[in-house]
Sequence to fold (117 residues):
Amino acid sequence: GIIIFNILAALLILFIIAWFWVIKSKSTRIQSQAITIEVKDTIYQPSRIETDQSDIRLNFIRRDATPCSEYVLFDALEIHEQLPLNKIHTISLHNLKPGTYRFHCQMGMYQGELIVR
Fold:
């Protein structure tokens, strides 16, 4: 009984770690200067964005009413923005240097990456 419970608990922990921190979604490559990112079901869609642009507009639309989805943070860019429910909120980024800019909710459950080439 207890051994089976421990095995199931360990498998659940491994699944959670893989789901939130290990598994990478496919990249969405954009050529324009704007993209719409939907916030719903504990994910950003798309969550991996690749661009060659140094100036870009990210149009977030929050469909999830949970408190965790209310803010998006770009730590490296010192951006902390509140996302209104069911309305587009634009974050304009300028003079981005090549690199990976991670973005996430305040609790770290929603995760995304902006990759500038």
User: Anything to note?
Assistant: The chain is about 20% helix and 45% strand. The chain has a mean pLDDT of 92. The radius of gyration is 16 Å.
